[in-house]
Amino acid sequence: MAPQLEPYFKKVDELADSFIERLRKAVAIPSVSADEEKRKEVVRMGQFLATELESLGAEVQQRPLGKQPGKEHLDLPPVIIARYGNDKSKRTILVYGHYDVQPALLEDGWATEPFKLTIDDKGRMYGRGSTDDKGPVLGWINAIEAHQKAGVDFPVNLLCCFEGMEEYGSEGLDDFIKAEAKQFFKDADAVCISDNYWLGTEKPCLTYGLRGCNYYSVEIAGPGQDLHSGVFGGTAHEPMTDLMAILGKLVDAKGKILIPGINEMVAPVTEEEKALYGPIAYTMDNLYESLGSTTGIFDDKERTLMARWRFPSLSVHGVEGGFSAPGAKTVIPAKVIGKFSIRTVPDMESPKVNEAVYKYVKDEFAKLGSKNKLNVYCQHDGKWWVASPKHWNFSAASKAVKEVYGVEPDMTREGGSIPVTLTFEEATGKNVLLLPMGSSTDAAHSINEKLDRRNYIEGTKLLGAYLHYVAEEPMVAA
Amino acid sequence: MAPQLEPYFKKVDELADSFIERLRKAVAIPSVSADEEKRKEVVRMGQFLATELESLGAEVQQRPLGKQPGKEHLDLPPVIIARYGNDKSKRTILVYGHYDVQPALLEDGWATEPFKLTIDDKGRMYGRGSTDDKGPVLGWINAIEAHQKAGVDFPVNLLCCFEGMEEYGSEGLDDFIKAEAKQFFKDADAVCISDNYWLGTEKPCLTYGLRGCNYYSVEIAGPGQDLHSGVFGGTAHEPMTDLMAILGKLVDAKGKILIPGINEMVAPVTEEEKALYGPIAYTMDNLYESLGSTTGIFDDKERTLMARWRFPSLSVHGVEGGFSAPGAKTVIPAKVIGKFSIRTVPDMESPKVNEAVYKYVKDEFAKLGSKNKLNVYCQHDGKWWVASPKHWNFSAASKAVKEVYGVEPDMTREGGSIPVTLTFEEATGKNVLLLPMGSSTDAAHSINEKLDRRNYIEGTKLLGAYLHYVAEEPMVAA
Question: Active site at which residues (chains A, B) (predicted)?
Fold first, then answer.
């Protein structure tokens, strides 16, 4: 163990109750960003963080982001940025978190009051925002406090970026990060984001990749208005018939994308990468439990995790404009819009993916010989992100996990996206590490969200330990 | 001209204003069967008909149908049955109509008060129920009155069956007709229904066929709950993927049903039948106008009308359980239900159609190699109906059209269904004729429903003339 860690860990344990008290205060502020009427609570939560940071001697700014787009009477909550330490001989680490939360109502089915931290006898601390993302954000503040009270020198300069709109599209944040990359964040040597979860419940992980997402609409229109299938069935080209023919040819039942050119864009699996999968704590039963069924495509862990993390997938989400209610209606819809998305991975480039999709959809439509009109377009795209898990930022985190939990962390990717990750990487040009505090059972975004006491307290140790190991890593780029 | 028709026609013309006044009174009663609060108006409308018929000397019964299924506090409106004439030497004709109407509100976009008959300078009489079906029902009453006032012997015994729930599923009527077929309706020699429309606006038609409809659901389920496509895309069999593969293989873009065995069940087109299509007043422009587009499958009238009337068609109506709202949502739906229906024609038998559909859907699903679960079933079916257009019932109507309008009527079928037609045919065992009064532009079920003065007054002549020719037709079955 690095010599400074022992007193730090001891102090974290001593302060555990006060750290939980800090979380209790944070959870009690219903900082729901999606709810206009709760906007003042979001602002109050930002103020709470600012006050905590200032009381520990950090230099804090509450930076306005202007009005909320589409709701010009409403101010966006400020971004709380802070600097703790300004020693040129130390590394500077930029950490990101968010202080807003998902909506929550007792009547949604919560077993306890969502905005009252409630701890059961197994140390599960229930409350909205406990794990997403107030616990991790407070972890950084706890780490500063424990260092001060233990009399241990803080090993790095810490830059904080805590936003209040993450659960509502991070309105305004991208431009802010891009602007501050060369200003407030310009000294950052690496970035650490604690806003995701372990793959399971026992073994910590470091996350080095996320898939991107290209979301498509396929619009097919023909008649001027909806038609009666008795009167017109058989006489007119039906948009829904054409759409089904196209949506039925995008992907096979085993998940293989049938659009020519897509699979060819995928980076080959290297031996080094393959070696990362073996040790990962994950079983097919974990998959079946989360699916609520045994309808997995693959029978083994490696192929399942690779399909989730490092290969593209295509999902058809639904059809707009058709008859979607229960029962029976004999309508020929005049215009239907099929929605599907492709999860993207290295080295897929969004414009090339779009090009392949458009060409395939148009070609397949042309083959039909329909007189209807087709329009296919990308609703939005977000790029995949993959960091080097060999970078010193990851090595340091890995040592910290070993120190705190006694195991090597799983090196994981995620199938979904956390867009701010890529924004930080592109804006700062630095390595970004995803260092989760909570576990897979924390139910972020669901009812009965919780953070285990162990994950919070050991997680606070982990964040501090990570900073110590980061400070010790050799000064080489990776 | 049959000698009795001239004074009858003359009297109809003389009484035209009073017949329009009768329609005005009927339209003023908002007999909306779908609206519980209007039930008393429906009952009042039935009473109005009963009173009119009684004042002309008909024997009238208001027959209760019990409580409304699912709304047991609510009485169904009575069926108004009547007999006018009981001369054993005359034929007995059973006529059907309905006295309830579709809902209508000025704010739906009506140009005039929907329950106030408003006549423009071109003789278009606007009002809810004007054409569907109060005008035709009053046509029979007008015919009786004009005969009486012209001093012309009524040529047949007339049985009336006027219901008050047609626009809400004809609740209770089927059982009533079946029971009365051997009672009140037992003398009927033929049936005439005036509740559909000319194919166009100028040329009258007689309708001898309707398609049936088998409505299917294809349910595919896998995961225990909806999944996030980022987290699970590529790892689990997606119900929507399977469903699209199946729905994409049911019918081609040109309307050809791809389910083996279906097309083989269709009765071949005879030369006699083919000859009926040539004279029909219908153009491709009529199709394009009603489609609101030029996306018709065929370029000629004959194939278009045959596709609409005498060949089966398959329409996919929509998907339940997927994402059907505007925008983007990255969901993998846990269970999706595709809805499609097949319009059936002679000689398709519903159980055999079901069998072919089930086998094909199951076979195609099996080919996918998916671990999801499939369930395919028929939600409801209704049989096609075709009468012989050579029957004396049709010959008589044809002569009446020639007499009143100076042209041979088009012999038409319809692509949709009027279930009561088949009920009458099966219950009475007699020929059923559909003899429309209104035209294709009457906008039944839409805003600004209307009946042209010409169609109403000449239509009253037509109904009376039909009865005269029916009385004269040779007594042979056809």
Answer: 100, 166
Chain A residues closer than 8 Å to B211 by CB: 230
Q: Would you say the C-alpha torsion A346, A347, A351, A357 has a positive or negative sign?
A: negative
CATH of the domain at B344: 3.30.70.360
- B-chain residues near A290 (CB < 8 A): 231-232
Provide the shortest C-alpha distance from residue B210 to chain A (in Å). Answer: 9
Judged by CB atoms closer than 8 Å, whether chains meet at B215 and A287 is answered as: no
Instruction: Return the residue in A197, A198, A235 with the most chain B beta carbons within 10 A, the one to mutate for interface testing.
Output: A235
The torsion angle over the Cα atoms of residues B128, B131, B137 and B143, rounded to 10 degrees, is: 130
Q: Does the annotation place B445 within a ligand binding site?
A: yes
Number of domains in chain B: 2
Query: Last residue of a domain, which of A382, A414, A444?
Result: A382
Chain segment B181-219, per-residue pLDDT in tens = 999 999 999 999 999 999 988 899 999 999 999 999 999
Q: List active site positions of A.
A: 100, 166
Same-domain pairing of A388 and A357? no
Give B410 or A475, the one with higher predicted confidence. B410
A439 inside domain: yes
Nearest to A224 among B293, B321, B331 (CB): B293
Is residue B72 assigned to a domain? yes
DSSP string, B345-369: -TT--HHHHHHHHHHHHHHHHHHHT
| Residue B294, in any domain of the structure | no
Distance from the Cα of B433 to chain A's closest Cα (Å) equals 19
pLDDT interval class at B478 (50, 70, 90)? very low
Per-residue pLDDT of B74-117, as tens digits, reads: 999 999 999 999 999 999 999 999 999 999 999 989 999 999 99
Question: What is the CATH classification number for the domain harbouring B118?
Answer: 3.40.630.10
What confidence category does residue A283 fall into, taking pLDDT thresholds of 50, 70 and 90? very high
Domain boundary among A326, A347, A382: A382
Nearest to A170 by CA among A47, A294, A33: A33
The helix/strand/coil state of B318 is strand
Q: Which domain holds residue A223?
A: 212-266+311-382
- Put simply, the answer to whether B248 touches A252 (Cβ < 8 Å) is no
Residues B54 and B143 in one domain: yes
Give the Cα separation of A319 and A159 in Å (integer): 45
Note the pLDDT of residue B420: 94
pLDDT digits (tens, 9 = 90+) for B137-161: 999 999 999 999 999 999 999 999 9
Does the pLDDT at position A477 exceed 60? no
Closest residue in chain B to residue A199, using alpha carbons only: B231
DSSP state letter for A204: -
Cβ contact, residue pair A227, B293, below 8 Å: no
Q: How far is A283 from chain B (nearest CA, A)?
A: 13
One domain for residues A135 and A20: yes
Q: What's the angle, vertex CA A231, arms to CA A228 and CA A236, rounded to 5?
A: 85
Q: Which among A407, A385, A391, A421 is positioned nearest to A458, based on CA atoms?
A: A407
* Angle at which helices B453-472 and B135-150 cross, to 10°: 60
Residues of B within 8 A of A313 (CB-CB) are: 229, 233-235
φ, ψ of residue A254 to 5 degrees: the values are -100, 15
Q: How confident is the model over B420-441, as pLDDT tens digits? A: 999 999 999 999 999 999 999 8
- Stated pTM of the model: 0.89
Residue B98 in marked binding region: yes
Residue A380: list chain B partners with CB under 8 A.
328
Q: Which two tokens stand for residue B356?
A: 């072919």
Bond prior to B133 in cis (omega within 30° of 0)? yes
Where b means 16+ CB within 10 Å and e means fewer, B158-170 reads bbbbbbbbbbbeb
Provide the pLDDT for residue A271: 95
Tell me what pLDDT residue A1 has.
Answer: 62
